[in-house]
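Page header: ASSEMBLY MODEL / two components / 716 residues total.
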Amino acid sequence: MPLTPDQKKELEAKLQEFVGKPIGPPKAGRDAVNEPMIRAWCDAMGDANAAYLDPEAAKASLHEGIVAQPTMLQAWTMDGFEMHKGYDEPVNGVQRIHKLLTEHGYTSVVATNTEQGYTRYLVPGDEVTEETVIESVSEEKATALGIGYFIDTRTRYTDQNGDELGWMTFRVLKFIPAQQTAAADSGETAAAAAPARIKAPMGHDNAPWWNEVEQGKIPIQTCNQCGKLFHPPRPMCGECGAMDMGYIAASGKGTVHTFTVMHHPQFPGYDFPILAVLIDLEEGTRLMSNLLGCKPEDVHIGMAVQGSVEEGDDGMKLPVFRPVA
Amino acid sequence: MAGTLHDQAAIVGIGETKYTKNSGVSELALASEAVRKAILDAGLQPKDIDGLTTFLLDTNDEVEVARSVGCGDLTFFSKIGYGGGAAIGIIHQAAMAVATGAAKYVVAYRALNGRSGQRYSEGVSGDIVTTDLIHWSWYMPWGLLTPASWVAMFTQRYMHDFGAKPEDLAEVAIATRDHAVNNPAAFFHKRPLTLDEYMDARWICEPLRLYDCCQETDGGCAVVITTPERAKDLAQPAALIRGVAQASGDDQEQMTSFYRPQISNIPEMELVAKQMYAMAGLGPDDIDAAIIYDAFSSIVLMQLESFGFCGPGEAKDFVKDGALRAEGGRLPTNTHGGQLSEAYIHGVNGVVEGTRLIRGTSTNQPAKNEHVLVTAGVGVPTSAMILGQQS
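Prediction written out in full:
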């Protein structure tokens, strides 16, 4: 439901009240700068610089001891996963802005850019405090993602003596997703905007298989001469040498031969964790697929499953399997 | 002409770049540095080199490397496909070339910006249409895009069939890491891994956790190969190639041979082992140390079985009492830290370490080093060799 001009004016007036003010009192980091966190950061980032990791090498360097990776600046005072709670029960100014916008239909958020400046290297024992000010809230902008407001904050980091360690600017877009905007006007463009799973490219040897899937069948390639079944499809029967291949429809009855629960890395268009299963079809061939309607902890080798062709939210038709009740 | 490659070739020079996460230079620069170092290590000059061989995946064509390093005329050049399966395939090529007289001195090399450039962990995508992509299309729509996802499928079944536990995979990761702790060239130098850290690390694809998966590295490696006769006049003790073989198994796919009756073993590696042992006139009991390709921890267990160090499904018991450890283990394995903990140079850093083991110069040098096994990638058409000392 789009806002009326008056509602929008009222919203924007409320947004501007936050500008120029701190989001809340200064916040001290939970832990002083310390080597374990430095090491964990370096591991995660793949940074092998001895100045952060090797006490001896660091001592010999111009730093004369271990220093923190500068880009960690934000990590010392950052809230953990607890942060998400603040978006329902705001505890600071930024969260109040987000909640206000969410209530007005600007439900999505994306961080668009951030910059950091470093005044000095942090060393173990430094106690970091941050103070964040809302610098600006933009006019309503139309972006590729959707219509929304840019919110700019500036955070200043100081040490135990109140001296500056560095700063960070952070910009987010709080927006009504384009998909949702478009959905109101035209359903077609909305679907196109969503990320989709990777489709199989079509070649001579696999396109017929996918054509069968489009008809709602789980196809198995068969040699039209000798009847041997194959998966994946191929141009020639390795049994009799014929190049006359066709398809039968599998019953969809099968069992799990092996599986994996995939967590990382996560690709757009797929729902993680993915339950990937290798199915022994009752006809005797195997098929890689996904198991739906099953918790990751419940899948097991030998599990009886039933396959069918299902159409996903991305419009892709795929043979997938579900546990047999 | 010799009817066998047994004792017909030797590794006489090794070279490697630093292993980093961001080399800041081209892959050709890495290849050139590694190749030149290997040539000089052998006591040769670039103009002595008349053969080059590398991976099909390597972006540094032989002619580019030859021009950059200054090799001059070449009479032999070749590339081997199938990812890490080529690690010993290139040694096989070089051995054939020097044994037949196609070339006198061949450099086998591999260089990649595997972390700052194209990362294999990011998986295949539908962006570039090739015939190979049709193969991957049987996996992509269902989300299996990465090496970890493919290997997880085999690993799950392997653990199911033989009762291997997470602790057994952990022993591979931890023993390997302990070796890296002593190796200044290793990414995990001085950084040991505890069982708790291993278990607490995030899932990649179950049953594979973070530390079951290898590094991604920028770096390059090269080795020089020539005949045993020429080797006698060079700067370093030779690592004699006692046996070397390639194999592709029945119903082989690239990383996804899911359609065989059994998927908890590695038939192509068994075929490599059979040929290699027969050529060398040796068996598993003769092997003193090993470099076992470790893109993932589980494939080390599976290869211990392929190469007959224990029976099918028995690797979990074999590794229990520290068999893989340099200090007192039955089969000191991946003494450089492996690809799990030193660097991922597609197995060729293992060729370099295998040569060091024969020379007696590993940072984790075991006492016995008469014969060293070096294996190549798993899940693909692959290869392996036995190195020995020249008498």
